[in-house]
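dumping this here before i forget
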Amino acid sequence: MTSRELKFFRLSVAVLVLSRFSPALFAQGPVPDAPRPSIEAASTTFITPKTVAGEHRFWDKENRVLFAASAALSAADFAVTRANLQNGGRELNPVVRFFGTSTPALAANFAGETAGIIGLSYFFHRTGHHKLERVLTMLNIGSSAGAVSYDLVNRRGAR
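structure:
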């Protein structure tokens, strides 16, 4: 690096540091020509928060139906998967394959999946993503229904 580049670099760092930590940049105050709000209007007016169109209670009817359907299809997925595994079938999902060695572990996997969906849905609800909270549950219902359908079509020992 030449001395000219070094001087430019040092100057750039100095300007960056000074501009970042300069107290004058953090000073805020009223603009001299700005209109000021009247105290009378502010003291007599109460502002009520407006409700957002997509806002709803978490345990409303639609979510209860979605969570019940998700839990029912997870239970069906557990039952069909367990029956297939006991009749010599194999688990195709690599995550569930780890739990497929015992019935309690398999049940814990599907119960955890349902609890995780409800928990993540609640997180989306609290952060204001109301459409995502419902879409997530619908996707879980679809994937569980697809797994149950596949397991029923390809089951072992039933033929």
